[in-house]
## 1
Amino acid sequence: MRWNPLDWILGFFALDLGIDLGTTNTLVYVRGKGIVVNEPSWVVMEKRTRRPLYVGAQAKNMAGRTPAHWIALRPVRDGVIAEFDITAALLDYFIGKAHEQSLVPFPRPRVVIGVPSGVTEVEMRAVYDAALAAGAREVYLVAEPVAAALGAGLPVEESVGNMVVDIGGGTTEVAILSMGGVVTSRSLRVAGDEMDEAIVQYMRNKYNLLIGQRMAEEIKIQIGSAFPLPEEKVTVVRGRNLVTGLPEEVQVSSVEIREALSGIVQTIIDTVRDTLEDAPPEILADLMDRGICLTGGGALLQGLEQRLSEDLRLKVWVPEDPISTVARGAGWLLEHLPEKRHLLMDSQHFLPVSSSPVS
C-alpha cells in the first residue's frame, strides 16, 4: 500500500484501539486508559434511506418502540457482520467516541478486532473492510478465544495448557491454547441470544405469554441460572396473552427459567467436553491443575461456573470483569506489536502492509 503522509500525521495523534465487536455489546480498549466504550451493538435507521440515526445505548432503548418508518437492529449476528454499511457506521461511532477526549478531528487509529475462531475468510474480510470504512488506518484480526485468554492474563505462550470458554451474545468460543497457538478449538453459534430465545419460547409454551427479546434478557440477568441457587428467586414478567390478546403479567421462578435454559447450557457443556476429548493427555494434566477460564457475558449466568465444574470434573474460574477480556486482550496485542504478530489470525494475506513509515 502506498504511504499516505496525511494518514501518518492523523495516525500519529490517534489512539490505538482494541475492539470487541460483539453481537450484543461492543467494547473498546484504549492503551493506558482501559475500557472507554461499552455500549450495545444497536443501530436505529430510516427504513427507506437506511441512514443511521442513533447508535449504541440510545438505539437499544428505542428497540421495539420505533415509529413505522424507522427500524432498530443489530448489524452483527452470531459474531459476524450481517449488515456491512450499518456495521461500518457502528464502528465509526465507537471510534469517534473513543477519541472524544482527544483533539483529533478525523482519527485514523490502528485497531485489533476480535472475531470468532470459526469465521470464514469472507466474514473476516467483511470485518476488515468495515473497520477501514470506519476510518481505521491499520486493521488486525485476532481469534476471540486467544484475545479472551490474553485479557484474562493466561500465559498462552508458555509450554503449558490453558483453556478458555468465551460465551458472548452470538457465539461460544472454546479453545485450548499452548505455546502461542491453538491446540484444539470449537466455535459454536449458540450463546446469550439463544438463551433469550429459549426464555421467549418457554413463556409462550407454558403461559401463552408473548414477550420480547429485551424482556427475556432482563429475566435471564435477574433470575437466570445454570445450577440450583442457595435461595431461589421470583420475578414478574409482563407481555401479551396470546389467547385474549390483552396485556398480562405472571410470576416466574428461577427454577422455571433454569429449566428453560437447560438445553442451551447442556449444548455448551457438550461442546466443552468434545474439545477436551481432542486434547492430548499432557494438556489434560495441565488443565487438572489450572482449570478452565470462563469469560464473556455468559460467564455472569448464575451457577454456570459450578455447573461446568460439576459436569466436567475440573476447576472452573471467572476472571475479574469477564465481559471485557476480549477487548483487553486485543488492546494488549496492539501494545506489543510487532513481536506478537504470530498471535493474530493466520489468514492475513488480504491485509495490506502498514501504511506508516514506522511499524
## 2
Amino acid sequence: MHSNPELSFVEFETSLLIQKKLSQLGIEFENNWVKTGIVATINGGSDNGKIIALRADMDALPIKEENQSTYRSKNEGIMHACGHDFHTASLLGTAKVLLELKNYWSGTVKLIFQPGEEVLPGGASLMIKEGLFDKHPIQKIFAQHVTPEIEVGKVGFKSGMFMASTDEIHITATGVGGHAALPHLYKNPIIALSKAIIQINDFYKTTKHPVETVIAIGNFRADGATNVIPNNASALGTVRTFDEIYRKEIHKKIISICDNVSKETEVKIECNIIVGYPFLMNDKFLTEKAKNNAKDFLGEDNAIDLPLRMTAEDFAFYSQIIPSCFYRIGTGNKQLGITHGVHTSKFEVDKNSLESAMALMSYLAICEMQTETINN
C-alpha cells in the first residue's frame, strides 16, 4: 500500500486490495461506501448484543516522497505521508487476530475502511450520510493514528476534548489594476487584503478566547509586478477551536472584518468560510478504560496522557454521534532516526510499531467485548 498510494476518494486499487485480503480471510464485507469504502463484519463466538467498530482511513497526500526505501511510493507526487497505509494494514492484521480468537469474545466487530480523511467534507461524514449508523447499529468506535513524536511501544490517550474543529478561510479581493506610477487610477487589492489579514490576526492575538483557538493565514497570492498593480489578490487560512457556538462567532467576526475593510478601501472583498470537521470528543469512560487496558497490555509506563491537539480529524464526525476513543500509537524511533513528522516528504515509521498497533487494537476490542478481565 505504501508503494501504491492513492489520493482521497480515488483509492480504487487500495480498496480492491483490502477486499482481496478480507476475502482470503473469509470475512464478509460490503463495498462501495462512498465508492471506495468498505465495512466488514466479524462475529464472535456468541452474541451478547454488543456491536463496536474499528476504523482505519486509507487515502494518501499530494507529497513527493524523499525516502529511498524499497517500498517507497511508485506514484510520483503522491505519498502515504500521514500513515493511513499503516492504519489500514494494522486493521487488516487486527481482523486476522480477532477472527482467530473469535471463540474468546462475544458480539460483533465492524471494520470500517474509510476513504477521504484528508479532504473536506471528509469520508467519515459521507459514510454517515450514506447510512452507516442506520444500517449498522454501532454502539462504540475506536481508531488509532500514527505518531512519530511517541516512541514505538507506547500509546497516548486523551479523554474528553482532544482535537480541534477545522474550517477553511478563502478571501478574494477585487480592485482596479493599473500602472504603479499612477495611483489615482487604481485601487490596490493587495493593500486592502493585507489590511484585512492584519485585522484578522489582531483579533486572534488580542482576544481572550473562551477555548483554545487558532486563526492563521497560510497562503497569499497576487500576480502583479514591480510596476504592475493586479486586479485581484487572494488568501487562504484556517480556523480551529473547541466550541461550536464560538466557532460560528469567529466566522461572523472574520466576515465582518472583511466587509468593513472593503468599505474603507473601496475594494471588493469576499470572504467564504468552508465549514470542515467538528472537534473530536473522546468518551471519558471508554477512553479511560482503554488507557487502563493499554497499561495492562503494554506496561504501566507505556500508556501516556496527551494534551489537546489543534490538528483535526474527520473521525470527529463519529465522535459527535456515538462513544468514541481515538488514540495515538507510537511509531517513532530516535535511535534509528525515525523522527520526521506526518505530512512531510520523509515521514517514516518504525516497522515494529505495526506489530504493537495490531496487538493493542485487538486487545482493546476483545476487552470491550468481554465482561471478565483477560489474563492471557
## 3
Amino acid sequence: MKYEATIGLETHIMQKTNTKMFCACKYEYGAEPNTHVCPVCLGYPGALPVMNEKAIELCCKAGLLLGCEINPYSKWDRKNYFYPDMAKNYQITQADQPLCLGGQVAVEVDGEMKTFTLERIHQEENAAKNTHVAGASLVDYNRAGTALMEIVSNPCMHSAADALAYLTALKQIMEYGGISDCNPEKGQIRSDVNVSVRPVGQEKLGSKVEIKNMNSFAFIQQAIEYEIDRQIEVLESGGKVVQETRGFDSDRGETFSQRTKENAHDYRYFPEPDLMPVKISAEQIGQWRSELPELPVQRRERYVKELGLPEYDAGVLTADMATSDWFERVMVHTRNAKAVSNFIMGEMMRLLSEHGLSIAESKVTPEKLAEIIALIDAKTISTGAGKQVFEIIFNEGGDPKQIVEEKGMAQVSDDSALEGWADEAIASNPKPVEEYKAGNAASINFLMGQVMKASRGKANPGAVMQMLKQKLDG
C-alpha cells in the first residue's frame, strides 16, 4: 500500500523589540541569568501586564508580508499549563481571535513552484529557558515574557523537502522585513512539527504526531523523514498511530515519545481579564503596508531583470540578507554587477568560510571591492591579479591601488614590450605556429600561454591575442 504524509508547522519567532511583551524588562541574549526580570514576567500575584505596541506592529507587518488579513479586532487569552518555564502557570496568547488570518508562502521545491497556506499568526509571550544538568534543572527567566509570534501553517506539506523550503523562505522574509534576526542558535526561530500519514486516496487525515520545539532546520528534516517512516511501519504492521507529543534525539536520528494527548485541545484556554482587546484601524494597516521593505523574491527578480544577473547568482546573493545588503552597497560604486557577484560567490564566500567570519567582519569593504573591479575593468590589472589583491586585503587590509603599485601587478599593454614577447614565442615554437597556419586555430592558445609566462602574467591578454593574430595572419 502507498502512503501520503501530511505536515504542518507551528513556527515561533522572537521579534526585534527592545523590551518584553508585557513589561519593561529588556532582553539581552547571554546576559547573567535572571537579571532582566520583574514582578510581571516572574508572575507575582497582583502584577499587571501592559501591551508592547512595537510587537503588535511587527506581528501585523509579518502578516502583511505573508499576505494575511489583519484582524481589526483581536483579543488575549490564557493558555494554562503547569511547567517551570512559565512562572505564573499560564501563557498570555491568542486563541480564537488572533492578529493575522490566512496568508501563504510561495517557494520553489525541487524545481516546482509550490504555495503553502497559513492558518493564522498570533502574538504571545515567550517561556523561560530550562537547562537540565545532572540531578537538577535550572531556569533562566530572562527570556520569559519576550515578544513571540507563532506562525501556524495549514497541514499542506507532504515531504521534508516541502517543510525545509517553507522554513527557509519564512526565515528570509522575516529577516528582510526587519521582524526578527531568526538566529536558531539564540532560539529566535523554533518550530513544532505536526506529521501524519494516510493511505493514498484516503480523505481523512491520519493521527497527528507533534515533534516539539526544534530550532535546527537540519534536525527538522531528519525528524520528519524518520517520523514518516516510523508511522508507515506502524500501520503496515497492523498497529495504530497514537496521537502524541514526541521529541527528537539528534544523536540517534530518532523521535521518541514524551506524552500522549487525550484530544487535540488539551490546554484550557479562557479570556485574559487583565488586557483590553486590540483594535486596529484601516488607516494604521495602510501605514504599515506602505513601510514594508523589498522582499528576497522581489530582489531576485530585480537582480535578473535590471542588473542582468543569472537566476543562480540572484538566488545565492539573496539567500542571506547580510550578503544581499553588502552586494547592494558595492553596486552604489560600480555598474559591473556580474563581476561583483563573481567576487562575492567566489573569493568572498571561500575566505569567509575558511576563517569562520561573517561578511560584516571582512576587511574587504564594498568600496574596496568596487575599486578592485574598476582596476580590472580599466585593464590596469588582470582578473587573476584582482583576486590576489582581494585576498591580500581580506587577510591584511590595505588600499587596492597601493597594493597593485607596491607588488608590480599592473598589466603591460605597451606594444613594444608585447611585441618582443610575441616574437620570442613565435620564434621558439615553430610547431604550434605551423599548426595554426594550417587551420588549427586552438594552437594560438599555446603561444598565448608562452607570452603570459614570459611576462610573468603582466601582459594584457586581449592585447597579446590581438598582436599574435596580426603576426600570424599577416
## 4
Amino acid sequence: MDEPRKLRLHPDYPYAYETHLHTMEASACAHNTGQEMARACKEAGYTGIFVTDHFVYGNTCVDRSLPWSEWVERFCMGYEHAKEEGDRIGLQVFFGWEACYKGTEFLIYGLSKEWLLAHPEVRDCTIQEQYRLVHQGGGMAIQCHPFREEPYIPEVRVFPQWSDGTEVVNATHVSVRSKSHNDPEFDVKALAYAKENHLPRTSGSDIHSVNLFYGGMAFSHRLETPQDYIQAVRSREQCILLTGNETLIGADFRLAYDD
C-alpha cells in the first residue's frame, strides 16, 4: 500500500465525497472491510462516502443461492460496518450499489436496505425496469465507466434514456496509483458522450482497497442525505470532479461544468 496522502480541496468546494467504493464484505474484488475503508477516507479528508458494492449479478462475494432477505442482509454488511465506523469518527456514510448487466454497470443511489428487502424483483429486472423501479423509490441510476474495455465486458453499451447521468471520471482509469483499467481515453469518451446527450456528470474512484485513488466529487456545501446528492447531480450543480491526480496537490481543479 502506498503512503496515504491528504486531499487538497478548492476553498470554494471544501466538501469531498467518494461516490464509488467497494468493501470486502460484499465485493469479491475488494481487499478491505467497510470499517477500514471508512477510516482511510476520513484520514484522506473526505466528508463522506457512498458504499456501492457489487450487486447480485456483479462481482459479489455473497452467495446468490441464499434466500433474498438473507442475501440482502449479508450484502449490506460492508455498508453497515462503514456506517458504524463513520458515525464514530465523523464521516458521513451513505448506501448504494453497483448493478451489473453483462458487464454494463450502474451505480444506484438514494435507496435503502429496507427498500431492497421490499423489492426482490430488482434482482432480475432489465435495465429499463431497473430505471423505473429506482425512480419509483426516489433513487437515481448513474451509468458508470461506460466506455471501459476489459475481457469481462462483452461489448460497450450506453443507455442515455435509462440513466440519470454518466460517470465521466473514474479514477481507476486515470490515477497514477491505480494498477488496473488504466486508460484515460475511457473517460475522454465518457465526457464526450455525456455532453452529446446532455447528461449530468459524476466522478468516483471505483476504489477496492485503502490504497485510495482520491476521486469523487467536491461540493460547496455539505450533503446531509443521499437525496441532496441526487438533487445536486440532477440539477447539474457546479462542483469539482476529483480526478485522483491533480486534486492531490490542488494544481488543476476540474469543474464539472466548464463548457
